[in-house]
Design brief:
The chain is an all-alpha fold and about 80 residues long. Helices cover about 65% and strands about 0% of the residues.
Length: about 80
């Protein structure tokens, strides 16, 4: 485990050195691209969840529960 941690630390240091070696203008461009792609992925995920929720049917309450005691009516509405 110690060797694995050292390998990870070395890889992180190498990546950091490569990043710092880039010109500042290039770093800014890459950062903007990263955040733009990140935003697009998040928006796509939200749209997919929204579409799935909009097209889904109501979950039937009693069909997936197999241990409901006899005599309990699950379709009975509770008065408010």
């Amino acid at each position: 485990m110690k060797k694995f941690r050292q390998t990870i630390d070395q890889q992180v240091l190498n990546a950091e050195q490569k990043w710092k070696a880039l010109p500042e203008k290039r770093q800014r461009i890459l950062t903007k691209i990263f955040f733009a792609v990140y935003t697009l992925v998040i928006m796509a995920a939200f749209i997919q969840i929204w579409c799935n929720a909009a097209h889904s049917k109501a979950i039937p309450i009693g069909s997936h529960i197999s241990n409901i005691p006899v005599g309990i009516d699950i379709n009975k509405k509770v008065p408010k």
